[in-house]
Amino acid sequence: MLLLDDLKALRLQEQAARTPHLAFTLPNVPALMEQIRATRFPTISDRLEIYFIDGPYVACIWHSALSPLSGGTIFLHNILNRPEVSPAVFQYILTHELIHLIVRGREVEGKFTTHPPEFWEMERDLVPNRDMAFSWLWLNFSPVLKRDKKREGIRVKRRWKWAPELVNVWEWEAFEGKYDHLVPGATL
Q: Which pLDDT score, from 0 to 100, does residue 118 have?
């Protein structure tokens, strides 16, 4: 989950426009994003776009540095473009990306971060099941995910399309009760 510079974002938008991917998700992701924007982020304009791409990160957002509330583009990796991905996981990811339009990156303890403490506080407030959604992502996709600490994102390895371990993905409902012990603070 990452903020992109303008040039890289434009290249991704051009690629997405040239080779659009059909959505195989059960939730209507653009409609879900609009619902989240309208209910949780009413100050953000309605100029938001969303694309599934074969990019390097699970999700990232591009917006104008001069006017972040004027909308932006969210790029979701195609690893999420499957019917098993729950609306709860998309709510977590989309909310995370939209928070970037509200909470700006800043220097913390001498180092610039796109996720300052107030970012995480807002995310906790807006997405109470974020730990469960994040655990679901890692349980299902960890063989092809890698944390990128320098860029503060989660990379998807290039071999993801050919990873046999991604054939069987947990349904959200089956995961919810079975793996509560993995989620910090979950009630049993």
A: 97
Domain that holds residue 144: 2-182
Q: Amino acid identity of 57?
A: Y
The reply to whether 174 falls in a domain is yes
pLDDT in tens, 146-183: 998 888 889 999 888 888 777 777 777 777 766 555 55
Domain count for the chain, please give it: 1
* Alpha carbon distance, N-terminus to C-terminus of the chain: 30
| 188 falls within a domain | no
Report the candidate in 145, 171, 167 with the shortest Cα–Cα distance to residue 89.
171
Crossing angle of helices 29-40 and 87-102, rounded to 10°: 50
DSSP state of 60: E
Segments of 4-114 assigned E as strands: 48-53, 59-62, 72-77, 106-108, 111-113
How much is the mean pLDDT over the chain? 83
For helices 130-141 and 87-102, the axis angle rounded to 10 degrees is 120
pLDDT of residue 1: 44
In this prediction the pTM is 0.82
Within 10 angstroms of residue 187's Cβ, the number of other Cβ atoms is 5
Q: What backbone torsions phi and psi does residue 108 show, to the nearest 5 degrees?
A: -130, 120
